[in-house]
Amino acid sequence: MNIKLIALDLDDTLVDSKKDLSKRDVTAIKKAMDKGIYVCLASGRTYKSLKPFYKRLGLNSMTISTGGAIINDKDGNRIYEKFLPEKEAAQIVKYAYNNGYHAQVYFKDDFHYYNKDSKFPKLYEKRTGLAGTYDRSIIEMDEIKTPKILFIDDEDKIEEMTKIISEKFSDLSLKNSYPSYIEVNHKDANKGVALKVLVEMLGIKKSDVMAIGDSEIDLSMIEYAGMGVCVENASDNIKKHADFITATCKDDGVAVAIEKFCLYV
């Protein structure tokens, strides 16, 4: 293979539970860049939340954020977006509120929530470094312009919640990005579509693309890429669709894949 672009998920793929990057991963990424390989972060996080890792890696590339709904150029300018239908976004927020679900609505690079007593915004902030804004006005809106809505609950409730919400809003995309998260996007907004847009902008063949991820939100880009890779800690469904299963996030899985397919070939 002749890999020319690497698309990297962040959480539980490149970034561990302590929000750390391993030295081996960083070294492998920088060596790939030195070979002229384009390295792109592709995350469910907002651009603001992924930017610290972008800087730590010394990247100079476009980024895919909010689950594939947004692409920013190397200077942070938004060059592509696929937002939720505005009326449906408002309906799903009202539905969440009326049924006692915690939901977060994303505006620009921040999120708003309507239940100030919920434990989930603080847990989310601890995990991502992104603090939210308490804002009850979002449950009164008839239209909401947002790239995504995030439902959060305890892990044992997520599967049932996903089924219920999917049946209620069948024309939207619902994917898990973390065991306790349900990401709601436009049906055509995902990492695979965004990666295709980026690849076409760069004039690269998809056969020369490697994508590495761990969760349902990564499946579309893993399937799109010529070399779809998942870390060993990925779910069984993701493993079934990957071309290669690398080591776990904790065991430098990103570096293992880059070394195998980009550096020592």
What does this structure look like?
The chain has 265 residues and is α/β, with parallel strands linked by helices. It has two domains: 5-81 and 189-263, HAD superfamily/HAD-like (Rossmann fold); 86-186, 2-Layer Sandwich (Hypothetical Protein, Haloacid Dehalogenase-like Hydrolase, Chain: A, domain 2). Helices cover 35% and strands 23% of the residues. The protein has nine helices and 14 strands. It has helices spanning 23-34, 47-57, 86-98, 120-128, 155-168, 191-202, 219-224, 236-241, 253-263, and strands at 5-8, 38-41, 63-65, 70-72, 78-81, 102-107, 110-113, 133-134, 149-152, 172-178, 181-186, 209-213, 227-231, 244-246. A six-stranded mixed β-sheet has the order 8-7-6-9-11-10, with helices on one face. The chain has a five-stranded parallel β-sheet with strand order 2-1-12-13-14. Helix 7 (219-224) links the parallel strand 12 and strand 13. Helix 1 packs parallel to helix 9. The N and C termini lie close together (8 Å). The mean pLDDT is 95.
Overview in brief:
This protein is α/β, with parallel strands linked by helices. Helices cover 35% and strands 23% of the residues.
Provide the CATH top-level class of the largest domain.
Answer: Alpha Beta
Q: What structural class do you assign from the helix and strand content?
A: alpha/beta
User: How many runs of DSSP E, i.e. beta strands?
Assistant: 14
- Radius of gyration, CA atoms, in whole angstroms: 18 Å
Could you give the order of the helices and strands?
EHEHEEEHEEHEEHEEHEHEHEH
- Mean pLDDT comes to 95
Strand order of the largest sheet: 8-7-6-9-11-10
Beta content:
15-25%
Number of helices: 9
Main β-sheet: number of strands, strand sense, barrel status? 6 strands, mixed
What's the CATH H-level superfamily name of the largest domain? HAD superfamily/HAD-like
In the predicted model, the low-confidence regions spanning at least 5 consecutive residues are none
* Name given to the CATH architecture of the largest domain: 3-Layer(aba) Sandwich
Oligomer: single chain
Q: Percent of residues in helical segments?
A: 25-40%
For the termini, the CA-CA separation is: 8 Å
The name CATH uses for the topology of the largest domain is Rossmann fold
Sum up the overall morphology in one term. globular
